[in-house]
Amino acid sequence: MFWIGFRMPPSWMRRPCCRSSVASFAAQLVATFCGIGCLTVLFFAAPARAQSVVQGLEKDIQAIFDRTKDGVVRIKAIVPVTDGDRKEIVAEGLSVGTGFFVDGNGLILTAASVLRGADRALVYWRGNTYEAQALGQDLRTNVALLKLNAKTPSLPQGSPDALKVGSMTFAVGFPMDGPISGEYGFVSDPTFISGSVSDKNAMRMPQFIVTSLIRCSVRVQPGQSGSPLLNARGEVVGIVTYSLDQDGSTFALPITAARKIQKDLVEYHAPRDGWTGLTIAVRGDHLKTQDREIAVQDVYEGYPGHLAGIQPGDILRRIGNREIRSAADVMNATFYLSVDETVNFAVEREGKLMELPLKVVQRPSDKERLALKRVAPPATELR
Q1: What is the model's pTM?
Q2: 70 and 126 Cβ atoms separated by less than 8 Å
Q3: How many other β-carbons are positioned within 10 Å of the β-carbon of residue 113?
Q4: Alpha helices in 74-117 (DSSP H)
Q5: Which has the closest alpha carbon to 231: 214, 247, 248?
Q6: Which of 120, 123, 193, 316 is the most exposed place for a label (fewest CB within 10 A)?
Q7: For the chain, which domains are there?
Q8: pLDDT confidence band for 5 (50 / 70 / 90)
Q9: Are the beta carbons of 374 and 299 closer than 8 angstroms?
């Protein structure tokens, strides 16, 4: 038996179609920036000026789209379906998504959810179909890496750190079997971790949040997971990983974080998460940053924190060059640590500040960590 069908995302991830022409897109942007009253005044009191504004926006938006689209690909992953005993393949399904080139030698970033369970990945680019090599995937960040044996364009990359609340963003991707399209929106939180999602399915999110994400109002459609998220200059600042219907938000992993995962997948075909062997606890008023401290709660014996001389109760002040004021600071600082890297931990103990060098190791498996000896009760783990 042979069956082909689309593996649709769950209902909480589905979006109604909301594509618009470049002209109406520009008009919506003018309305967003000026407000409806301002737009009305522009069109009735100064039609020439209003037309000039819209035409200018059209030109800029079209230029970004035209520069980007050749570096974006459609991906169809072949997913085998087995019988009840999971021995014989009885059908095949399709998982559809988007990816984009990150170098000139055929490397493609996409969402790991697109490739989940697949044994083949087909890439559609410039009217041709390619069988791609899967280099690996990281389920914690929902990022995967494919490779074509071809010379390809590479999309320019920008700095996610430059994004602010209200910054304009674009996503360019393929909605299911439709033509490539662009969606726009604005940044609502450039360093999202958790705690401010109203969607009833927000409980699904922690499996993907291991460092800050970009939260924006770009309304992606099924098939556009893995799309590049662009800034107003047309530079890639993130990769679209998932979205929430009720909350009206799309989330993108910053391109700086994706590059770290990309490096591991190229070299090892799997993520190599750095680990400190420590856990933390937040002390003080959780609502007031100035009254909050991040303390070391547990130390795993024989692992980096212990070998560095860090003790339970130490207050974390800095990891590398990053000041520590919140648990999110710790997550972001430790996410970018590489195996075998040595980084200084600045800790305060009994009023004295100390710099302790710590050599990072590879994160043990969940099963391995359960067997490790701690010197204090369990708490939230550092990455």
Answers
A1: 0.82
A2: yes
A3: 23
A4: 112-115
A5: 214
A6: 120
A7: 1-268 (2.40.10.120), 274-381 (2.30.42.10)
A8: very low
A9: yes
